[in-house]
Amino acid sequence: MQVSGKVIAGGDVNNAWIHTVGVPIKIASGGDVVNLSNATMAVKYVSNSINYDDIYVGAMNGEYKSLSSAAAAALADNSGDMADIDANPFVSGLSTNTRAYIYFAQEVNSNDILEQGETAVLAITFKSGDTPQVLDKIKAEIIIPTGAALTVERQIPPITTSIVDLG
What is the pTM of this model? Predict the structure, then answer.
């Protein structure tokens, strides 16, 4: 897998923190398909003061064109894998848990398998006390059973808008 574009975040300008991060991913050229179900994958999250071994709850069905629309759908799907997503940070505030989930921005088949030609987004939502702030370093590691893990590390810039470009 590889990062497939800009990493973005939802920022809270008044509180100077990030409430959600979105990392676009795709299969690297010549790579094999990846099963994104929570039974076969884990997401480790590390920041300046936090270390979680696995915050991943699963992949969402359907195609979503924005981080905010995927967050709304994850909140609405309060059963199964998405039951731990209990707030839409773009509308109703922070979740009670720091969690990660995958949604598809471009899909070929409606399943949990990331294939060539598809783009998925790893979304991480933060609970109060876990929100990254200016100059914090954040790192997410997508761990899959076969192939190399994908590690994405970013530093939080000044938060001046509700959508923050993390590069």
Answer: 0.94
